[in-house]
Specification:
Order of helices and strands: EHEHEHEHEHEEHEE
Number of domains: 2
Largest sheet: 7 strands, mixed
Strand order of the largest sheet: 3-2-1-4-5-6-7
Helix content: 25-40%
Structural class: alpha/beta
Number of helices: 6
Bound molecules: 5-O-phosphono-beta-D-ribofuranosylamine
CATH class of the largest domain: Alpha Beta
CATH architecture of the largest domain: 3-Layer(aba) Sandwich
Radius of gyration: 16 Å
Length: 203
């Protein structure tokens, strides 16, 4: 069985690209069946189109109420009958309808070692704080900001001369590898969650 992935993006989509490349191999166990964005004209959508993957745009400003946006995003994903939805640089918090449909099957990759530095500026906040290890976290999404159960983490060093950009790039290399490895394992082996403890494999 091939696990059906919908990937949500807001920007350059390098994590999406890593997934598109990995899913080209049938033994990976998953395929990207659609890509959604909250913005038109982003590189992530172009990357999807190059792979003949259908796309949709759900822009918050096109809806009178946030709840209507949430309903549209939910329906747009449901159309593709996903097994797993991956937020790969999707910079919007989903609402209650989306979570009612997909909680437990919606994962996000965040560019910090949670629970430290949640939110929009993980690498910048880590650099400012002066930590010596930064990294990325793949986690389930719940109704909080980057608070859901952690699936995988990877650490990279913070170097003395790092700028936000150099640290971000180092994190993203490790983040993409982790995303591809972990989503593949989730697809092939399944997972269990006991309270906050996520275990890959059929336990
Ligand atoms: C990733 O580092 C992700 O953690 C953060 O935004 C970045 C998205 O990068 N939320 P890309 O669009 O996949 O290149």
């Amino acid at each position: 069985m091939t696990v059906r992935l919908v990937v949500l993006v807001s920007g350059s989509g390098s994590n999406l690209q890593a997934l598109l490349d990995a899913t080209a191999d049938p033994s990976y166990g998953a395929s990207v069946v659609a890509v959604g964005s909250d913005r038109p004209d982003i590189e992530g959508l172009t990357r999807a189109a190059k792979h003949d993957v259908p796309t949709f745009v759900a822009a918050v400003r096109d809806f009178a109420a946030r709840d209507d946006w949430d309903a549209f995003l939910t329906a747009s994903c449901e159309r593709f009958a996903p097994d797993l939805i991956v937020s790969a640089g999707f910079m919007k918090l989903v609402g209650p309808r989306f979570l009612a449909s997909f909680e437990g099957r919606y994962v996000n990759t965040h560019n910090a070692l949670l629970p430290a530095f949640p939110g929009m500026h993980g690498p910048r906040d880590a650099l400012t704080y002066g930590v010596k290890l930064a990294g990325a976290t793949l986690h389930f999404v719940d109704s909080g900001v980057d608070t859901g159960a952690i699936i995988a983490q990877v650490a990279v060093p913070v170097l003395d001369d790092d700028t936000e950009d150099t640290l971000l790039e180092r994190i993203k290399v490790a983040e993409r590898r982790q995303l591809v490895d972990t989503v593949g394992r989730m697809a092939r082996e399944g997972w269990t969650v006991n309270e906050r403890k996520v275990r890959l494999g059929r336990g």
